[in-house]
Design a protein that fits this description.
Two copies of one chain form a homodimer. With 199 residues, chain A is of the alpha/beta class. The first copy, chain A, has a domain at 77-199: 3-Layer(aba) Sandwich (Dna Topoisomerase Vi A Subunit, Chain: A, domain 2). Chain A has eight helices and six strands. In chain A, strands 4-3-5-6 form a four-stranded parallel sheet. In chain A, strands 1-2 form a two-stranded antiparallel sheet. In chain A, strand 1 (55-57) and strand 2 form a beta hairpin. In chain A, helix 1 (6-15) crosses helix 2 (23-35). Chains A and B meet through helix 1, helix 2, helix 3, strand 2 and helix 5 of A and helix 1, helix 2, helix 3, strand 2 and helix 5 of B.
Protein backbone atom coordinates (compact mmCIF):
# COMPACT_ATOMS: atom_id res chain seq x y z
CA UNK A 1 0.00 0.00 0.00
CA UNK A 2 2.93 2.35 -0.64
CA UNK A 3 0.66 4.14 -3.12
CA UNK A 4 -1.93 5.38 -0.64
CA UNK A 5 -1.61 8.91 0.67
CA UNK A 6 0.01 9.21 4.13
CA UNK A 7 -3.06 11.04 5.45
CA UNK A 8 -5.25 8.01 4.65
CA UNK A 9 -2.67 5.55 6.03
CA UNK A 10 -2.53 7.57 9.28
CA UNK A 11 -6.32 7.46 9.60
CA UNK A 12 -6.31 3.68 9.05
CA UNK A 13 -3.55 3.27 11.65
CA UNK A 14 -5.40 5.31 14.28
CA UNK A 15 -8.82 3.74 13.65
CA UNK A 16 -7.17 0.32 13.97
CA UNK A 17 -6.34 1.15 17.59
CA UNK A 18 -10.00 1.31 18.59
CA UNK A 19 -11.27 -1.73 20.49
CA UNK A 20 -13.12 -4.02 18.09
CA UNK A 21 -11.28 -2.74 15.00
CA UNK A 22 -8.04 -4.21 13.65
CA UNK A 23 -5.93 -2.98 10.72
CA UNK A 24 -8.13 -4.85 8.23
CA UNK A 25 -11.48 -3.60 9.49
CA UNK A 26 -10.01 -0.10 9.91
CA UNK A 27 -9.22 -0.09 6.18
CA UNK A 28 -12.76 -1.24 5.45
CA UNK A 29 -14.10 1.53 7.71
CA UNK A 30 -12.08 4.18 5.85
CA UNK A 31 -13.43 2.97 2.48
CA UNK A 32 -16.93 3.03 3.98
CA UNK A 33 -16.33 6.61 5.13
CA UNK A 34 -14.91 7.66 1.75
CA UNK A 35 -18.10 6.46 0.04
CA UNK A 36 -20.29 8.35 2.51
CA UNK A 37 -18.59 11.72 2.52
CA UNK A 38 -21.58 13.94 3.30
CA UNK A 39 -23.62 11.54 5.44
CA UNK A 40 -20.86 10.07 7.60
CA UNK A 41 -17.27 11.23 7.03
CA UNK A 42 -17.82 14.94 7.61
CA UNK A 43 -20.32 14.57 10.50
CA UNK A 44 -17.98 12.10 12.20
CA UNK A 45 -15.00 14.44 11.80
CA UNK A 46 -17.04 17.27 13.34
CA UNK A 47 -18.36 15.12 16.20
CA UNK A 48 -14.89 13.80 17.02
CA UNK A 49 -13.32 17.27 16.97
CA UNK A 50 -16.06 18.54 19.27
CA UNK A 51 -15.59 15.72 21.78
CA UNK A 52 -11.78 16.04 21.56
CA UNK A 53 -12.11 19.72 22.38
CA UNK A 54 -14.78 19.64 25.07
CA UNK A 55 -14.97 16.24 26.81
CA UNK A 56 -13.09 15.86 30.09
CA UNK A 57 -13.32 13.91 33.35
CA UNK A 58 -15.78 15.40 35.83
CA UNK A 59 -13.86 17.14 38.61
CA UNK A 60 -16.11 15.52 41.24
CA UNK A 61 -17.01 11.96 40.19
CA UNK A 62 -14.64 11.24 37.27
CA UNK A 63 -17.41 10.62 34.71
CA UNK A 64 -16.58 11.64 31.14
CA UNK A 65 -18.76 14.50 29.98
CA UNK A 66 -18.76 17.94 28.41
CA UNK A 67 -17.72 20.67 30.86
CA UNK A 68 -16.04 20.86 34.27
CA UNK A 69 -18.86 19.10 36.19
CA UNK A 70 -20.76 16.19 34.60
CA UNK A 71 -24.52 16.11 34.06
CA UNK A 72 -25.10 13.67 36.93
CA UNK A 73 -23.16 15.76 39.49
CA UNK A 74 -24.78 18.98 38.22
CA UNK A 75 -28.32 17.57 38.37
CA UNK A 76 -30.08 19.02 41.49
CA UNK A 77 -32.68 16.23 41.35
CA UNK A 78 -30.13 13.49 42.06
CA UNK A 79 -30.15 12.22 45.62
CA UNK A 80 -27.00 13.56 47.39
CA UNK A 81 -27.30 11.05 50.27
CA UNK A 82 -26.05 8.03 48.29
CA UNK A 83 -22.69 7.61 46.56
CA UNK A 84 -22.17 4.73 44.13
CA UNK A 85 -18.54 3.63 43.64
CA UNK A 86 -17.71 2.11 40.22
CA UNK A 87 -14.44 1.00 38.63
CA UNK A 88 -14.72 2.66 35.22
CA UNK A 89 -16.77 5.27 33.39
CA UNK A 90 -18.28 2.44 31.33
CA UNK A 91 -19.68 0.96 34.55
CA UNK A 92 -21.25 4.31 35.45
CA UNK A 93 -22.89 4.44 31.99
CA UNK A 94 -24.15 0.86 32.46
CA UNK A 95 -25.71 1.86 35.82
CA UNK A 96 -27.33 4.87 34.16
CA UNK A 97 -28.72 2.69 31.35
CA UNK A 98 -30.28 0.43 33.98
CA UNK A 99 -31.91 3.59 35.37
CA UNK A 100 -32.26 2.13 38.86
CA UNK A 101 -29.91 4.46 40.74
CA UNK A 102 -30.79 8.08 41.52
CA UNK A 103 -27.77 9.09 43.65
CA UNK A 104 -24.29 10.35 42.74
CA UNK A 105 -21.20 8.48 41.57
CA UNK A 106 -17.51 8.08 42.28
CA UNK A 107 -15.40 6.58 39.47
CA UNK A 108 -12.22 4.90 40.74
CA UNK A 109 -10.61 4.62 37.30
CA UNK A 110 -9.42 1.07 38.00
CA UNK A 111 -8.82 -1.36 40.84
CA UNK A 112 -6.03 -1.66 43.41
CA UNK A 113 -3.06 -3.55 42.04
CA UNK A 114 0.28 -3.80 43.84
CA UNK A 115 1.77 -5.26 40.65
CA UNK A 116 0.79 -2.30 38.48
CA UNK A 117 1.55 0.23 41.22
CA UNK A 118 -2.10 1.27 41.58
CA UNK A 119 -2.63 2.38 45.18
CA UNK A 120 -5.47 4.19 46.99
CA UNK A 121 -4.15 7.60 45.83
CA UNK A 122 -4.45 6.66 42.13
CA UNK A 123 -8.05 5.54 42.67
CA UNK A 124 -8.89 8.79 44.52
CA UNK A 125 -9.96 6.79 47.59
CA UNK A 126 -8.93 9.59 50.01
CA UNK A 127 -11.18 11.96 48.03
CA UNK A 128 -13.99 9.39 48.25
CA UNK A 129 -13.59 9.28 52.05
CA UNK A 130 -13.73 13.09 52.09
CA UNK A 131 -16.92 13.06 50.01
CA UNK A 132 -18.43 10.36 52.28
CA UNK A 133 -17.80 12.53 55.36
CA UNK A 134 -20.12 15.26 54.03
CA UNK A 135 -23.12 15.51 56.40
CA UNK A 136 -25.72 14.74 53.68
CA UNK A 137 -24.11 11.40 52.68
CA UNK A 138 -25.62 8.40 54.47
CA UNK A 139 -24.73 5.45 52.22
CA UNK A 140 -21.91 4.35 49.92
CA UNK A 141 -22.83 1.56 47.46
CA UNK A 142 -19.82 -0.39 46.19
CA UNK A 143 -20.79 -1.41 42.63
CA UNK A 144 -17.46 -3.01 41.74
CA UNK A 145 -17.05 -5.96 39.40
CA UNK A 146 -17.47 -9.38 41.01
CA UNK A 147 -13.83 -10.25 40.23
CA UNK A 148 -11.02 -10.95 42.70
CA UNK A 149 -9.48 -7.50 42.09
CA UNK A 150 -12.84 -5.77 42.33
CA UNK A 151 -13.72 -7.48 45.61
CA UNK A 152 -10.27 -6.80 47.11
CA UNK A 153 -10.69 -3.14 46.24
CA UNK A 154 -14.17 -3.17 47.78
CA UNK A 155 -12.72 -4.46 51.08
CA UNK A 156 -10.03 -1.78 51.17
CA UNK A 157 -12.60 0.93 50.49
CA UNK A 158 -14.96 -0.45 53.15
CA UNK A 159 -12.08 -0.28 55.63
CA UNK A 160 -11.14 3.27 54.60
CA UNK A 161 -14.76 4.31 55.11
CA UNK A 162 -15.05 2.73 58.57
CA UNK A 163 -14.31 6.13 60.18
CA UNK A 164 -17.03 7.91 58.22
CA UNK A 165 -20.59 7.76 59.55
CA UNK A 166 -22.11 5.98 56.51
CA UNK A 167 -23.62 2.62 55.61
CA UNK A 168 -21.34 0.75 53.20
CA UNK A 169 -23.25 -1.67 50.97
CA UNK A 170 -22.47 -3.64 47.84
CA UNK A 171 -24.50 -4.96 44.89
CA UNK A 172 -26.24 -8.27 45.61
CA UNK A 173 -24.66 -11.39 44.17
CA UNK A 174 -26.95 -14.04 42.72
CA UNK A 175 -28.57 -15.53 39.66
CA UNK A 176 -28.66 -12.99 36.79
CA UNK A 177 -32.11 -12.20 35.38
CA UNK A 178 -32.80 -14.77 32.65
CA UNK A 179 -30.00 -16.99 33.97
CA UNK A 180 -30.38 -20.79 33.97
CA UNK A 181 -28.89 -22.76 36.86
CA UNK A 182 -27.48 -25.41 34.56
CA UNK A 183 -25.24 -22.81 32.89
CA UNK A 184 -24.15 -20.92 36.02
CA UNK A 185 -20.79 -21.41 37.73
CA UNK A 186 -20.62 -22.93 41.23
CA UNK A 187 -19.57 -19.64 42.84
CA UNK A 188 -22.68 -17.84 41.64
CA UNK A 189 -25.00 -20.66 42.75
CA UNK A 190 -23.34 -20.76 46.20
CA UNK A 191 -23.60 -16.96 46.52
CA UNK A 192 -27.26 -17.00 45.44
CA UNK A 193 -28.07 -19.77 47.90
CA UNK A 194 -26.23 -18.04 50.75
CA UNK A 195 -28.11 -14.79 50.07
CA UNK A 196 -31.54 -16.46 49.63
CA UNK A 197 -34.55 -14.40 50.69
CA UNK A 198 -38.15 -14.97 51.79
CA UNK A 199 -40.57 -14.65 48.91
CA UNK B 1 -28.26 7.39 28.87
CA UNK B 2 -30.27 10.59 29.00
CA UNK B 3 -27.49 11.95 31.22
CA UNK B 4 -24.71 11.85 28.65
CA UNK B 5 -23.94 15.02 26.73
CA UNK B 6 -25.49 15.17 23.24
CA UNK B 7 -22.01 15.68 21.70
CA UNK B 8 -20.88 12.32 23.10
CA UNK B 9 -24.13 10.59 22.12
CA UNK B 10 -23.73 11.90 18.57
CA UNK B 11 -20.16 10.55 18.37
CA UNK B 12 -21.35 7.12 19.61
CA UNK B 13 -24.19 7.14 17.05
CA UNK B 14 -21.87 7.98 14.14
CA UNK B 15 -19.09 5.56 15.15
CA UNK B 16 -21.74 2.84 15.40
CA UNK B 17 -22.37 3.19 11.67
CA UNK B 18 -18.88 2.00 10.76
CA UNK B 19 -18.68 -1.58 9.50
CA UNK B 20 -17.57 -3.86 12.34
CA UNK B 21 -18.82 -1.51 15.09
CA UNK B 22 -22.31 -1.60 16.58
CA UNK B 23 -23.84 0.76 19.16
CA UNK B 24 -22.29 -1.23 22.01
CA UNK B 25 -18.75 -1.34 20.65
CA UNK B 26 -19.05 2.30 19.55
CA UNK B 27 -19.69 3.23 23.19
CA UNK B 28 -16.68 1.19 24.25
CA UNK B 29 -14.60 2.93 21.56
CA UNK B 30 -15.63 6.37 22.85
CA UNK B 31 -14.64 5.45 26.42
CA UNK B 32 -11.34 4.12 25.05
CA UNK B 33 -10.81 7.43 23.24
CA UNK B 34 -11.73 9.48 26.32
CA UNK B 35 -9.06 7.68 28.32
CA UNK B 36 -6.44 8.30 25.61
CA UNK B 37 -6.99 11.95 24.94
CA UNK B 38 -3.47 12.95 23.84
CA UNK B 39 -2.35 9.68 22.25
CA UNK B 40 -5.50 8.78 20.31
CA UNK B 41 -8.54 11.09 20.55
CA UNK B 42 -6.85 14.27 19.33
CA UNK B 43 -4.69 12.62 16.62
CA UNK B 44 -7.74 10.73 15.33
CA UNK B 45 -9.82 13.92 15.22
CA UNK B 46 -7.03 15.63 13.24
CA UNK B 47 -6.55 12.69 10.85
CA UNK B 48 -10.27 12.40 10.20
CA UNK B 49 -10.67 16.13 9.58
CA UNK B 50 -7.76 16.04 7.16
CA UNK B 51 -9.16 13.10 5.20
CA UNK B 52 -12.66 14.63 5.24
CA UNK B 53 -11.23 17.82 3.78
CA UNK B 54 -8.82 16.41 1.23
CA UNK B 55 -9.77 12.87 0.16
CA UNK B 56 -11.78 12.52 -3.04
CA UNK B 57 -12.30 10.03 -5.87
CA UNK B 58 -9.57 10.21 -8.51
CA UNK B 59 -10.97 11.94 -11.62
CA UNK B 60 -9.42 9.26 -13.84
CA UNK B 61 -9.64 5.85 -12.15
CA UNK B 62 -12.02 6.42 -9.21
CA UNK B 63 -9.48 5.44 -6.52
CA UNK B 64 -9.83 7.30 -3.20
CA UNK B 65 -6.83 9.49 -2.53
CA UNK B 66 -5.69 12.99 -1.62
CA UNK B 67 -5.90 15.41 -4.53
CA UNK B 68 -7.56 15.50 -7.95
CA UNK B 69 -5.51 12.63 -9.46
CA UNK B 70 -4.55 9.59 -7.33
CA UNK B 71 -0.99 8.43 -6.70
CA UNK B 72 -1.32 5.47 -9.07
CA UNK B 73 -2.58 7.56 -12.00
CA UNK B 74 0.00 10.29 -11.29
CA UNK B 75 2.92 7.84 -11.09
CA UNK B 76 4.93 8.09 -14.37
CA UNK B 77 6.54 4.69 -13.67
CA UNK B 78 3.23 2.82 -13.95
CA UNK B 79 2.72 1.00 -17.23
CA UNK B 80 0.08 2.92 -19.24
CA UNK B 81 -0.51 -0.02 -21.63
CA UNK B 82 -2.57 -2.11 -19.18
CA UNK B 83 -5.84 -1.13 -17.48
CA UNK B 84 -7.15 -3.22 -14.58
CA UNK B 85 -10.92 -3.01 -14.00
CA UNK B 86 -12.06 -3.57 -10.37
CA UNK B 87 -15.45 -3.30 -8.69
CA UNK B 88 -14.56 -1.23 -5.63
CA UNK B 89 -11.73 0.90 -4.27
CA UNK B 90 -11.10 -1.85 -1.69
CA UNK B 91 -10.36 -4.26 -4.56
CA UNK B 92 -7.86 -1.77 -6.00
CA UNK B 93 -6.14 -1.56 -2.60
CA UNK B 94 -6.08 -5.37 -2.38
CA UNK B 95 -4.41 -5.54 -5.83
CA UNK B 96 -1.86 -2.94 -4.70
CA UNK B 97 -1.11 -4.90 -1.51
CA UNK B 98 -0.44 -7.98 -3.64
CA UNK B 99 2.05 -5.79 -5.54
CA UNK B 100 1.79 -7.89 -8.71
CA UNK B 101 0.22 -5.30 -11.04
CA UNK B 102 2.17 -2.34 -12.44
CA UNK B 103 -0.45 -0.83 -14.76
CA UNK B 104 -3.33 1.59 -14.18
CA UNK B 105 -6.82 1.02 -12.77
CA UNK B 106 -10.46 1.68 -13.47
CA UNK B 107 -12.83 1.45 -10.49
CA UNK B 108 -16.42 0.66 -11.52
CA UNK B 109 -17.92 1.52 -8.13
CA UNK B 110 -20.20 -1.54 -8.17
CA UNK B 111 -21.61 -4.12 -10.55
CA UNK B 112 -24.43 -3.99 -13.08
CA UNK B 113 -27.81 -4.56 -11.47
CA UNK B 114 -31.11 -4.06 -13.27
CA UNK B 115 -32.87 -4.41 -9.91
CA UNK B 116 -30.96 -1.56 -8.27
CA UNK B 117 -30.97 0.53 -11.44
CA UNK B 118 -27.21 0.32 -11.90
CA UNK B 119 -26.48 0.54 -15.63
CA UNK B 120 -23.29 1.02 -17.68
CA UNK B 121 -23.42 4.82 -17.18
CA UNK B 122 -23.30 4.51 -13.37
CA UNK B 123 -20.26 2.24 -13.62
CA UNK B 124 -18.50 4.66 -16.00
CA UNK B 125 -18.22 1.93 -18.64
CA UNK B 126 -18.42 4.44 -21.56
CA UNK B 127 -15.46 6.28 -19.97
CA UNK B 128 -13.59 2.96 -19.68
CA UNK B 129 -14.16 2.32 -23.40
CA UNK B 130 -12.84 5.81 -24.12
CA UNK B 131 -9.72 5.15 -22.00
CA UNK B 132 -9.23 1.76 -23.70
CA UNK B 133 -9.26 3.44 -27.13
CA UNK B 134 -6.15 5.48 -26.27
CA UNK B 135 -3.30 4.35 -28.56
CA UNK B 136 -0.99 3.32 -25.68
CA UNK B 137 -3.53 0.87 -24.14
CA UNK B 138 -3.07 -2.72 -25.34
CA UNK B 139 -4.78 -4.79 -22.62
CA UNK B 140 -7.72 -4.52 -20.22
CA UNK B 141 -7.63 -6.98 -17.28
CA UNK B 142 -11.06 -7.62 -15.76
CA UNK B 143 -10.33 -8.25 -12.06
CA UNK B 144 -13.96 -8.54 -10.96
CA UNK B 145 -15.18 -10.74 -8.14
CA UNK B 146 -15.89 -14.36 -9.10
CA UNK B 147 -19.59 -13.89 -8.27
CA UNK B 148 -22.57 -14.11 -10.62
CA UNK B 149 -22.94 -10.30 -10.67
CA UNK B 150 -19.22 -9.80 -11.15
CA UNK B 151 -19.04 -12.23 -14.06
CA UNK B 152 -22.17 -10.78 -15.71
CA UNK B 153 -20.60 -7.34 -15.50
CA UNK B 154 -17.36 -8.74 -16.95
CA UNK B 155 -19.25 -10.08 -19.97
CA UNK B 156 -20.97 -6.75 -20.61
CA UNK B 157 -17.64 -4.90 -20.37
CA UNK B 158 -15.94 -7.40 -22.71
CA UNK B 159 -18.70 -6.77 -25.25
CA UNK B 160 -18.45 -2.99 -24.88
CA UNK B 161 -14.70 -3.26 -25.49
CA UNK B 162 -15.05 -5.42 -28.60
CA UNK B 163 -14.75 -2.33 -30.82
CA UNK B 164 -11.52 -1.15 -29.17
CA UNK B 165 -8.25 -2.63 -30.35
CA UNK B 166 -7.24 -4.23 -27.01
CA UNK B 167 -6.82 -7.68 -25.49
CA UNK B 168 -9.49 -8.29 -22.84
CA UNK B 169 -8.36 -10.75 -20.15
CA UNK B 170 -9.62 -11.77 -16.74
CA UNK B 171 -8.00 -13.12 -13.58
CA UNK B 172 -7.38 -16.89 -13.64
CA UNK B 173 -9.80 -19.06 -11.70
CA UNK B 174 -8.37 -22.00 -9.76
CA UNK B 175 -7.20 -23.36 -6.45
CA UNK B 176 -6.24 -20.50 -4.09
CA UNK B 177 -2.67 -20.58 -2.75
CA UNK B 178 -2.70 -22.73 0.39
CA UNK B 179 -6.09 -24.18 -0.56
CA UNK B 180 -6.91 -27.83 0.11
CA UNK B 181 -9.02 -29.71 -2.44
CA UNK B 182 -11.13 -31.33 0.25
CA UNK B 183 -12.37 -27.92 1.40
CA UNK B 184 -12.94 -26.35 -2.03
CA UNK B 185 -16.33 -26.08 -3.70
CA UNK B 186 -17.10 -28.04 -6.87
CA UNK B 187 -17.13 -24.93 -9.05
CA UNK B 188 -13.58 -24.00 -8.11
CA UNK B 189 -12.29 -27.55 -8.67
CA UNK B 190 -14.01 -27.74 -12.08
CA UNK B 191 -12.59 -24.34 -13.07
CA UNK B 192 -9.09 -25.32 -11.93
CA UNK B 193 -9.27 -28.59 -13.86
CA UNK B 194 -10.58 -26.91 -17.00
CA UNK B 195 -7.75 -24.36 -16.86
CA UNK B 196 -5.01 -26.91 -16.07
CA UNK B 197 -1.55 -26.12 -17.40
CA UNK B 198 1.66 -27.97 -18.29
CA UNK B 199 4.16 -27.93 -15.45
Amino acid sequence: MSQTAPEIEELIRLLGKLPGLGPRSARRAVLHLARRREQLLQPLATALAEVAEKARPCAICGNVDIGEICNVCADPDRDPSTLCVVEEVGDLWAMERAGAFRGRYHVLGGVLSALDGVGPEELRIPFLVERARAPEVTEVVLALNATVDGQTTAHVIAEALSGADVRVTSLAKGVPVGGELDYLDDGTISAALGARREI
